Amino acid sequence: MNPTPRVRIAIQKKGRLSERSVELLRRCGVDFDVRTDQLLFPSSSFPIDVMLVRDDDIPLYVYEGICELGIVGQNVLEETLAARAVNVAENVRTLTALGFGKCRLAIAVPKGDRYDGAKTLDGKRLATSYPQLLGRYLKSKGVTASCVEMNGSVEIAPALQLADGICDLVQTGSTLVANGLREVETIFESQAVLVQTQRPLEPEKQQLVRRLEQRVVGVTRAVGAKYVMMNAPRSALEAIRKIMPGMESPSVIPLGDDGQKVAVHTVARETDFWVLVEQLKAVGASSILIAPVEKIID
Ligand code: ATP
Ligand code: ZN
Predict the structure, then answer these.
(1) CB of 80 closer than 6 angstroms to any ligand 1 atom
(2) What atom in ligand 1 is closest to the CA of residue 55?
(3) 227-271 confidence digits (pLDDT tens)
(4) Whose CA is nearest to atom 28 of ligand 1?
(5) Mutation pick for ligand 1 pocket among 18, 130, 150, 169 (CB with most ligand atoms within 8 Å)
(6) Average pLDDT over residues 158-170
């Protein structure tokens, strides 16, 4: 008899995506012990082995089917596969965006330099760790500029006269400002994604992948969501709906015999819950309860 099949997931070993990737897996019921300096960590709670690697290697591992799954930034996914002339959309299946690791790939120039549109970059030298994505962008704009490829500290290139501008990842923009640079174009928006290999999987493995995907989606959807419960006069329902326009299918339960008082239960997300409570009270809601949501499963 075949042993129980297991799947592999590659995540970043050390860096900006590591903590959130490990946390996501744990919330999906994938526990593993990162104690030693190993490559592969078997989970005891789900038939999956977690591979801890550099983020730049994840797309290739998934593309080649060395790992069935991976968690990686879209920027790295596109760049590293384009460098191998592999089309991402055709060769890797993106199962879901994960809502973390958000950043953008942007072009920036010294803050005093004139800039009026991509054509300004013609004939210029741009320092970047993303020659593929930058090249694709420049081509789409019909601009000829040269890429100065650097592996890190791209933002100091203009000050060193190595380049006239840069193309780098930006989250808040503070690094650019600190280096006297001004952001002029966003060429790619990125976040972490869960990806699956396109290589065919045996049915048992595909089923494991599907189970994990469903858990990941359930956990990711719950981020920023709260379960809100309150009592209110039925006449206040309209006002409550106005305060919570994004309210997801509220349950309205009559309280008492005359039905004039109701309990309202709903999921709300991405809001200032203290302000929400104050607004709800102001229209007559009472006994307001706000509870965390762990998973949202359809
Ligand atoms: P590794 O050693 O694994 O190669 P790294 O140094 O290439 O790590 P990190 O700096 O840890 O990579 O970034 C990993 C990913 O985090 C980036 O590719 C990007 O998708 C995302 N990210 C989010 N915000 C930022 C940011 N401000 N700067 C850089 N990357 C960011
Ligand atoms: Zn990297």
Answers:
(1) no
(2) 3
(3) 999 999 999 999 999 998 766 778 999 998 888 999 999 999 877
(4) 169
(5) 169
(6) 97
Q: Which domains does the chain have, with CATH numbers?
A: 7-101+192-222 (3.40.190.10), 103-189 (3.40.190.10), 226-292 (3.30.70.120)
Give the tens place of pLDDT for each residue, 46-55.
999 999 999 9
Residue 2, pLDDT above cutoff 70: no
- Closest-CA residue, ligand 1 atom 1, reads 54
CB of residue 139 inside a 6 A radius of ligand 1: no
**Ligand 1 binding pocket includes 12 (Cβ within 6 Å):** yes
Enumerate residues with CB within 5 Å of ligand 2 (an ion): 55-56
Question: For the residues 59-73, what does the mean pLDDT come to?
Answer: 98
Q: Which ligand is nearest to the CA of 100?
A: 1
What is the rounded CA–CA span in Å between residue 168 and residue 174? 13
